[in-house]
Amino acid sequence: MTPELLAPAGDEQSAYAALFAGADAVYLGLRRFSARESAANFSEEVLLRVTNAAHLLGAKVYVALNTLVKESETEEFFGQAVRAWNCGADAILMQDIFLGKALKEAYPEIVLHLSTQAGCCNVHGAVLAKRCGFSRVVLARETPLSDIPAISEVIETEAFVQGALCTCFSGQCYFSSFAGGNSGNRGRCKQPCRREYSIDRKGFGGKAYALSPSDLCVGDDLSAYLKAGVFSLKIEGRMRRPEYVAAAVKYYRALIAGESGKEEFSRLKRAYNRGDYTRGLAFGQSRFLSRDVQGHIGEEVGTLSFRGGKPFCASTFEARKGDAFKLLREGKEVGGAVFSEPARGGFFLSSHAALRAGDTVRVTTDTAANERSAEPVRFRPVRVFVRVRAGEPLYAEAEGFSLAGETVSAAKNAPLSAEDIAACFSRTDGSPLLPKTEVDTENAFLPRSSLNAFRRAFFEGLIKALAPARDPLPVRPIPAPERVHSACNGSAAIGREPRGDIFIYKPDDYSRPERHKGAFLYLPPLFTAADEVLLAPRFHDYAGIYCEGTYGIVLSERYGIPLFAGTGFNLTNSYAVGEVARCAEAFVLSKELSAAEQRALARDGAFTLSEGGIKLMDLCYCPFSRSCASCDRRGQYTLTDGEGRKFPLRRYELNGCRFEVYNCARLSAEGGAAPLLDGTVCTADMPVTRGHSQRSML
Questions:
Q1: What is the pLDDT of residue 678?
Q2: Which pTM value belongs to this model?
Q3: Which residues neighbour 223 within 8 Å (Cβ) at sequence distance 6 or greater?
Q4: pLDDT digits over 295-328, tens only?
Q5: What is the DSSP secondary-structure string of 115-134?
Q6: Helices then strands, each counted (H, E), the chain
Q7: What does DSSP assign to residue 286?
Q8: b/e map of 316-346 (b: 16 or more CB within 10 Å)?
Q9: On the chain, which terminus has fewer CB atoms closer than 10 Å, C or N?
């Protein structure tokens, strides 16, 4: 199986950089419903140009409409998806699996890929995706390598191999939303995880980038993904520059070809490299966090010293004007510098920082490497025949397409030469065509402007012939979801001690859970095959499962147990609510909805968070870098930000330690609000009240 190399495109230049560097496909976002709202993104006009260029090269374009969609936006969303398809998109990438089901039922022609934001991490999630009409899942970044072969047997898989990592489990981060009203699930993440924090544990009390992952680089371990059945190898980076995209594509193209990629890897590190690299959680936790450095640190090229009082870097690197550097001392950034002048055995630097001899010099802008990365290596060769003869119409043909133009005049003095005409037709105005032109000309005169206009018209027509537009889909009604009533009502509480009408048991150690025959067992968003082996024999010790991932639908069917769908389902519209209501005893609406938006989705079986701790993040790794020998194994720590706000950091055990981050402020039901829904869900063993509304958080 030949894998697909999939590259990011935050703008048109990055799309072309990826395609010309050898990407098999690019993914990009439009102006609405993109999980990277702050990227330049694409208009439909530009999308059409990019799909034409991609299809000329035999490549594909996937359009990411991968944010959560609220009830008031569903009609606009469906329209945007259809228009993107009509512009030539080869697939639509979505987070909302249930909205995707409705879209697929109305438009079976559209190909759907399930975004990593949907959190597909096991075979049960894969089965649900296929059932809902998706042809591919983008695996949650936390999916263990050992679990991927079984998922790949169910559905085509795509996995990240390069780029930035989220610290929280895919699609379950609410930190930016509750800290400042900028929802990551709506494409507006402000990355609070990239800020400095301290943790009240010995050795971690100083300020550090305590939640900031290093960049992912699977590199030589690519073969392990391929053996596991992964089809599409995905590079993250819709916020990165074109030279980074091109460098990343060329590096992985070299690895796929069985080459070392050493030179390409060096260029990639110099284009962008946050805190060196991690192989990611699929391969274990090695070097996962970048606690000391935040931002691009490039590649080491030498050590700082001083010559004649001026900062000097002894290095074999041939620096030049425009090159920039970052200096590190004991692993921490101390300042930046730029190239000043060459010198024997190295080069001089210019910097306003307080530098010291011995500081490590790392190049962060290598202009020569960027130029080499940007060199196109992929075109579509075409044989072009052009006839320019006096008294005859202009004529050109290629690949079965031909175009005739105005009648050519006889030359009074110097006629057009074949070389001039061939040179004109060597220009394709940025398209990926590579013409090899044969010219038939005799005694011809034509203004250069006329010849250029004819050449542009010819190549425009040729591109349309080689990459014909897709027949537009007709507008079709998408039926409103049927209103289904669920069974459970009352109040519910999540915690370790029974509370409320419905108790959801959340143990500290899943290897030794207590039995609560009338309770639902809490299952986190990451649920691996090993977790299933551990817990499945105990499912029937409980009334059912409360699940934070959509995989719970198929899991509950397999074991014949009731399902309570948790906030991790991210239910934000009636299509999603209608589907979940068919298979769950009860469900919790998204905690990112306002009270009015919750009210619009209210029905029997619908719950909302009412009071207690608000979980902001699920961390599927150890923030203490698995320093187990010195661990005090406390159940809760405190994460403190630069403004003194304190966020509870809870530890629990499920086939190893996992952690959760809660909001610095607890949700309160005080104030005597009028009943909103038929049920409430409270967390963290808070006293239960019935029927109070959640305060608007957005």
A1: 35
A2: 0.92
A3: none
A4: 899 999 999 999 999 999 999 999 999 999 999 9
A5: -GGG---SHHHHHHHHHTT-
A6: 17, 35
A7: T
A8: ebebeeebbbbbbeeeebbeebebbeeeeeb
A9: N
